[in-house]
Structure formats: structure tokens, C-alpha cells
Design goal:
11% of the residues lie in helices and 35% in strands. By secondary structure, the protein is mainly β. The protein has one domain: Immunoglobulin-like, CATH 2.60.40. Strands 2, 4, 6, 7, 11, 12 and 13 form a seven-stranded mixed β-sheet that branches. A hairpin with a 4-residue loop joins strand 6 and strand 7. The longest helix is centred in the N-terminal third of the chain and has 17 residues.
Length: 246
């Protein structure tokens, strides 16, 4: 069962309202594309699947970005196929993260002296995976009419499979489950030490993801949980983020 038309209409109105009132741009998650938006990817066999984070409409000078993406499923557990943290079945070496431009029409949003960091962890309390992505560079003024690549995330699912995980972890199971990928937050960091939170550029898919896997999870899959149950957005200044690079 998929979300009701009323629910989808509500989410669409809320999302468009955020976009309309945002004067600072918006953030997007898209599979194998910066633009157009490809909200969903289905498992089509072992291989590498790429998720692109981009920002559009940002015109204020900035010195970095700070993003947190959460991945969750609706069956009450979390599949080993998506455990890319150091303690998970996939391990930390099978997720490649880069700040390279997706293409010439979607350049990287970096100034001079760029630096970046990424951290993928498993949150046992919510049974979700959390991907924290941060960039730092000298002051850069983007063009509001340009969409910029922030990160490319290359998930290596070459040993992911339908069904259970093998005892030796040579196969990571559960790739057939639906997943929702959503922003806990996406921020642009200003030279004066402030952070600007950006809304999503696109309506939530299916139930509440900014991107989805295997068509996404319906309300019946997730039960009473709401998107907000997983959001752990915290206010942070550029000074706190910049300290991570020192």
C-alpha cells in the first residue's frame, strides 16, 4: 500500500511552501544525476550505485557546507546490505565519497584550499545509518542560477544480495528492502560563523525520503513513525565545524 492522495498532497504543499519561502537556496539528493532529479533507484544486481547531493539557488558567500543524511527502512530492523559503517557487514571501505563535480553544468561548490570529511555510523537507537558530510574552503560566492555538486556517494553493492547475510559476511543480505534517504539537515556555512539551513528542492518521495531505494517505504511499512522522529538537527556555528579540520 502506498501513501494516500491526501498525505501526498499535504507533503507536496509543505515542501513547496518551504521552497517558496527560502531565500537561500535548496538541497537535493538524486541517483546518478545532479539534474534532473532521479528520486528512486531499484536494485538491479551487484554493482556501484551513486547518490549525488547538490544545492541550487545559493547566492550568499560561504566557506563550507554541513550535511547529515539518514537512511532507514520500515521493517523494524536495518539490513546488512546498507551497513557501510566500520562495524557493519559492508565495512567502511565500500563507500566512496567525493566532492568532484558531477558534470560541467553541475560544478563543485568549493573555493580555494578545499577540505572535506565524511563519517558513516550506525544509530542503534533508531536502527538507521547516519552519513555526516562536511566541506571547508576559502570564501566562495556561488551563482544563484547554477546547481552545484556538494558530494557524490558511491555505494558499492557488489556483494549485496537478496535474502540473508552469510555467516562469513561475504554476502550482505537485505538489499531487497525499501529504504528512505532523508536530510536531517543541509547547511551552508557563512564567513561570519553562521549556518544557513536549506530546505529540500523536491517534494518528499513516497512517505518522507528525499531519495528512495526500491520505490521507498509506505506508511504501512513504517507504522506510526514520522520523518521528524529521526531528525536530530542541531544548531552549530562555523567555528564548531571548522575545528574538525584542525
Amino acid at each position: 500500500m502506498r501513501p494516500t492522495p491526501i498525505l501526498l498532497s499535504f507533503l507536496l504543499v509543505v515542501s513547496l511552501a518551504d521552497i517558496a519561502h527560502s531565500q537561500n537556496g535548496c538541497a537535493r539528493l538524486s541517483w546518478d544525476s545532479c539534474d534532473p532529479w532521479n528520486w528512486n533507484a531499484n536494485f538491479a544486481g551487484p554493482g556501484v550505485y551513486t547518490l549525488v547531493e547538490s544545492m541550487y539557488g545559493v547566492s550568499a558567500p560561504n566557506v563550507g557546507t554541513d550535511t547529515q543524511i539518514r537512511i532507514w527502512t520500515g521493517n523494524g530492523t536495518f539490513p546488512d546490505a546498507w551497513r557501510f559503517d566500520n562495524g557493519g557487514c559492508q565495512g567502511g571501505g565500500r563507500l566512496l565519497v567525493s566532492t568532484n563535480a558531477w558534470n560541467v553544468s553541475c560544478p563543485a561548490m568549493t573555493g580555494t584550499n578545499p577540505s572535506s570529511s565524511s563519517q558513516f555510523t550506525y544509530d542503534a537507537g533508531t536502527r538507521t545509518e547516519v552519513l555526516r558530510l562536511q566541506t571547508s574552503y576559502d570564501s566562495f560566492t556561488p551563482a544563484a542560477g547554477t546547481r552545484y555538486t556538494i558530494f557524490q556517494m558511491h555505494f558499492d553493492h557488489s556483494r549485496s544480495a537478496i535474502g540473508p547475510t552469510t555467516p562469513d559476511h561475504s554476502v550482505c543480505g537485505g538489499i531487497e528492502y525499501c529504504e528512505e534517504l532523508l536530510f536531517d539537515f543541509a547547511k551552508v556555512l557563512t564567513p561570519d560563523g553562521q549556518s544557513i539551513s536549506l530546505p529540500g528542492c523536491d517534494p518528499y518521495t513516497q512517505y518522507c525520503g528525499n531519495a528512495s531505494w526500491n520505490e521507498g517505504c509506505s506508511p504501512d511499512d513504517v507504522g506510526p513513525l514520522l520523518c521528524g522522529d529521526f531528525v536530530r538537527a542541531q544548531s552549530s556555528t562555523w567555528g564548531r565545524v571548522k575545528s574538525l579540520y584542525r
